[in-house]
Amino acid sequence: MNPNKPIAQSVAIRGNKIVKVGTNQEINQLIGEDTRVISLDGKTVVPGLIDTHIHVADFGRCLLWLDLTSAESIKELQSLLKEKAKQTPTGKWIIGRGWNQNRFKEKRLPNVLDLNKAAPNNPVILYHGSAMICAVNSKALALAGVTEQTAVPSGGTIDKNPQTGELTGILRDSATSLVWQVVPEPTADELSEATALACQKIVEAGVTSVHWIVLSENELPIIQRLHAEGKLLIRVNVIVPDALLKETLGFQSTDSLMLRLGGVFIATDGYLDSKTAALLQPYSDDPNNNGKMLLTEQELMASVAQVLAVGLQPVIHAMGDKAIDMALNVIEQTSQRASGKAVRFRIEQAAVLNKELIKRLKMQNVVVSIQPKVIATEFAVWSATERLGIERARWLHPLKTLLKEGVKVAGGSDCPMEPLNPLLGMQEAVLREHFPEQRLSVEEALGMYTLDAAYCSGEEKVKGSIEAGKLADLTVLSDDPLVAKTNRIKNINIELTIINGKVVYSKH
Ligand SMILES: [Zn+2]
């Protein structure tokens, strides 16, 4: 990622910094008595990977749940549930996720009796992979007070046996909340433990820095606690929702390179999958719907001014072209007023673009932060082409065009909604199935997770490439992504993760 020296053999680290990059011969001269020498046998070293969009606390919470994504039959689901029940105190909730009846040998939904049999002493709620359907057992139904007589909430379904009228234990859409609402929140200790586990998983994925998008107030004390206990492991750039700006004023960090409050998330519209992203022209599959702006331009202006006043970065979520246009209006006016003082703006998603919007993004040096796996989902799981029409879909996440026009694009995972693996994200950007003219090269994709991700938070001078003077954050890969088969990039193993000059994860 250093254009002046794109490939090197060896790297020397002193303390937490890289001091020299060069040939083995050059670096060998720096080896002293106390030097720890790590020979990588020709493996590939890349700058420490950066995830610019991850919900770490939520990821942790999911790690506590029973993972059913691999279950290939109801029998297998039952044995996983039985195993989990053995480790869970009687009466405590068991939450699971990820089953899918299409993968089951039995080709049917799991039912209340299946679950009762495997876990008779615990209330159980198991979410389908889509999170829109859940299967529950009798204990869960009883605690939620759901019976055959319960009124069906609008926009939901309570499945019943067509012959007997008995509950099957399957709840759909809004009806899932009938049970979910009685599942107790995890305790502070449980949450903190789960989040520490998430940090460990992140390091194992080769990620050295994250932009932690905070969703709830109770994450802030957890971040502080883990930082104080040395369990954060990764560098964390905290991004809080604008509603929590006040709560963050007392936020403390003893080492701003490891933990800092970086940005404030301001949502201007919703999402394409729920047709709430704000569009200039109506949705092609819903001609009376343009989506919805969540703020007026004046409100966004005020919000941005507030964020800048406390020295933080505005992280503006704008998905539809109408929302992006408004965000750019505000950015243009703000930078005019700031005259000379460079503010680095960032738009989250910037999904539906056009030529003119891209020019304006470039003019204002706005970083576009995207999650390539989410893009793949938009095209594959529900059809973005139908929703937007082919002409607009062509301009949905035009990553190659953005890079060609000189717009910086940073990559993230949106974990736990999508998998954490940054190499999978790179592969998605490289392989992109729909509108293949927007495919990135492997170098460009790597740039999204390293140098451009560092630029996104204004840290390109201290990280994002392997060069003397930068922080010693390195990720060692089992194989070179530049020569790997493009559909195998995601399978490359993480061998070592080095943060601040220290090995924080080693596969062997
Ligand atoms: Zn997200």
Description:
The strands form four sheets. Strands 4-11-12-13-14-15-16-17 form an eight-stranded parallel β-sheet. The mean pLDDT is 94. It has 18 helices and 20 strands. 31% of the residues lie in helices and 21% in strands. Helix 2 crosses helix 7 and helix 12 packs across helix 16. With 508 residues, the chain is α/β, with parallel strands linked by helices. 44% of the residues are buried. Bound molecules: zinc ion. The site of zinc ion (ZN) has 4 residues, from loops.
The percent range for helix content is 25-40%
Give the structural class.
alpha/beta
- How does the overall form come out from the CA principal axes? globular
Alpha-carbon Rg, integer: 24 Å
Q: Mean pLDDT across all residues, rounded?
A: 94
Largest sheet: 8 strands, parallel
List the helices and strands and how they pair.
Layout: E1 10-14, E2 17-22, H1 24-28, E3 44-47, E4 49-54, H2 56-64, E5 66-67, H3 74-86, E6 94-99, H4 112-118, E7 124-128, E8 133-136, H5 138-144, E9 156-160, E10 167-173, H6 176-180, H7 188-204, E11 207-213, H8 219-228, E12 235-241, E13 259-267, H9 297-309, E14 313-318, H10 321-337, E15 346-349, H11 355-363, E16 367-370, H12 372-380, H13 384-388, H14 390-393, H15 399-404, E17 409-411, H16 422-431, H17 442-448, H18 451-456, E18 474-477, E19 494-499, E20 502-506
Helix pairs in contact: 2-7, 3-4, 7-8, 9-10, 12-16, 16-17
Bound molecules: zinc ion.
